[in-house]
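Table S7 (text form). Paired inputs.
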Amino acid sequence: MIGNHARSDGTGAWPSIHTLAKESRLSDRTVQRCIAVLAKSGELRVSKSAGPYGANLYAIPGVKLSPGGVKLSERGCQTDALGVSQVSPNPSLTVPKDKERILWAIQESQRTGIDADTLLAQKKDLTMG
């Protein structure tokens, strides 16, 4: 589910635990445990409080877009016993429309040290004025 919120290179995802739980039909606590297991195995990078409004920022290392449009890891696409891919084919409908603007602010904030919310407000003032 985190992949539904990420860019095609696997970076820039910041869904809440509750959002992931709702999308995956799991409890919040189960999602927390899954994230911990994925982070420990190296399948997921978690940057604590690095996203907008202090959200955790997630990245899926080694993700690339295949010619068919399916996201594959460097280890290959994982399948279940029947050979069905574990990759979700549809993007999430809960991703904010201004995600690229927010990602820009996060990256610019990390580069300049200026708060991301301040940068977003400044950019909004420039486009409206």
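Next pair, protein 2 of 2.
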Amino acid sequence: MCDSQTLILAELDGGRILLNDCPQRDQRLLLGVEFGNLMHWMDVEDFHLLEFNVRQFDLAGFFAQYPGQSHVMLKTPFPSLWFRFPPEEFLELRALLTGAAAQLAWRSYPQRFPN
């Protein structure tokens, strides 16, 4: 049994990213994304995909393509599930995910390059 606690990788007013550094039975680390009223646990690979997609999202291009929209529309891996965020919340989500990705990379750095 693992006696580890959940660590906060990043935290802003709108949410936080958690790391469960006690691997589950399949030996995968889990990250929890809490943002507004959303909460989702995912493995590291899915987290990196989410962070990459949000970081690469062209906010100005989206509003240029959809001038009547006041919210960002984000697609999920589920075909009929989308999330809507006002631009300010989207930018906060981006900052939260990017900060957590940097912390996660920093924590894994010694494991990638052992002495």
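The chain has one domain: 6-112.
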